[in-house]
Input
Amino acid sequence: MAKISKTKTPIAEQAPDVRSHNFKEVTLGYTLEEGQQESVRCLQCKNKPCVHNCPVMIDIPGFIHQIREGNMLEAAKILNRYTNLPAVCGRVCPQEKQCEEVCTLGLKKKYEPVAIGKLERLVADWTIENNINLDDEPIKKNGHKVAIIGGGPAGLTAAGDLAKLGYSVTIFEALQSAGGVLTYGIPEFRLPKKIVESQIDSIKKLGVKIVTDAVVGKTYTIQDLLKEYDALYIAVGAGAPHFLGIPGTGLNGVYSSSEYLTRINLMHAYQFPKYRTPIKRSKNVVVIGGGNVAMDAARSAKRLGAENVSIVYRRSVEELPARVEEYHHSVEEGINYHWLTNPIEYLSDDKGNLVGVKCIKMELGEPDAGGRRRPVPIKGSEFVIDCDTAIESIGQGANRVLLDTFPELKNNKWGYIDADEETGATSIPGVYAGGDIVTGAATVILAMGAGKIAAQEMDKYIQEKVAKESK
Output
């Protein structure tokens, strides 16, 4: 242990006072030399706890060993066996709560875990920069067709895995570009769109067809797809924003984080006037919520020129659900925080424009059903935060466009698709579902894990069906 550094190899970042005025990527990534320096810290454990805590079960010690040996191609091949989106995961996956959380080195006193996510990004970026095609062997088609509804991380993962098994796969994507939350939700400074596009291009090279502007339930019917394809995978996400429903929600200047970030990311509002997508130029912004999406909205508002950006969160920093890295970056960039605070009313001028948010202070009471202490209002503690823009980031509900035209499909009490946790199977034979439309809003890597499991189960379903029909 004496020869192993106790801390992670430092990684270069844009300076806070520079990056808060641009949408370029904040974290610049390891050089090959830095990656090899970090790879030496991996203990190459026999029991591999990091692998077991990874939703897509990547051979983490395996690819890190190859980095250490300087064999980047072999490291890339190992990653490619398990994940179709390594450059994405290396940037936005919450490794600190998954693989790195159980890292044997990190469990030792005063030692930080291996920077697994940063090393995954290094390999993935090396593959992209060197234009390496890891799937250059021709794939023999098996004669069966699968439709994927939704081109986000769950759908892309399932599509890639099924294509590698020989299926003809078509993704039906409702928006103008595939990627789902990777494209419309996560900002450029955390996940550059060229990275998303390169990962999608790799999946296309497997033979996957992507049909955009295809709203299943409107443009195409489920019934038609069921007739044409051997199986369906529904991964449409949870795209219906939740609102607090407090007085003044309809005022000019009140956004959902979904609308705000979609305008910026998918529709390139941050590049106005090159792209003619309008976005409000705000001076004082309040973001409600404490997740990664709230961080993204607040940090985007800062980059668009807002002088004062505050996050209002009804619990304390200890309960903050956002990634620690994103929180630290936001603080460095000058984002303010109002802890134990909850909005109760939006205030307006005589023209219907937002001018402030009336809030009340909270205190933490008994734990709720999820185990977190429940926020309780403190009587008489109301105060006002002046603002011209408020962005609500308090979660999303089920996208009902498809579900309302498919009443045969069983939903759960929350309005999401009722799918088997182990297989992704729904109440309709041959129809599988996964990602946020099943779990509610969750992480990219959990959606990918669902897509990987569903691909395996759909293959099993189709092969068993073929075997029965051939008897």
